[in-house]
Amino acid sequence: MTTLEMGSVPRLRRGVRLSYDQTRETHVLLFPEGVLVPNPTAAAVLSLCDGVEDVAAIASALRERYAGVREEEILDVLSRLGDRRIVEWT
């Protein structure tokens, strides 16, 4: 297991795609093992996992959109998604 920190750079694993389902009006995460409907917080984090920006930059971008963004919560979301093999770190 990788130790995550603010300098970690997440990206969606190969074969994983975040889409928006117009019919259900929600994000859908498609990956080889199945489908996941992330909550709005996880979808916002995932949308910024581009393999270029680190967690600190992701937190900064989310703070521009939402109040009360905490780095610990972002790291927790990314850790759980990493455990499910949805994100990886570059």
Automatic annotation (TrEMBL):
- At the top level, the lineage of the source is Bacteria
Per UniProt, the keywords (alphabetical) are: PQQ biosynthesis
Q: Which GO terms describe its biological process?
A: pyrroloquinoline quinone biosynthetic process
Name any one Pfam family assigned in the record.
PqqD
Q: Look up the record and name the pathway of this protein.
A: Cofactor biosynthesis; pyrroloquinoline quinone biosynthesis
Which molecular-function annotations from GO does this UniProt entry contain? quinone binding
- State how it assembles: Monomer. Interacts with PqqE.
For this protein, the record's NCBIfam families field holds: PQQ_PqqD
Name under which the protein is recorded:
Pyrroloquinoline quinone biosynthesis protein PqqD
- The species is Amycolatopsis azurea DSM 43854
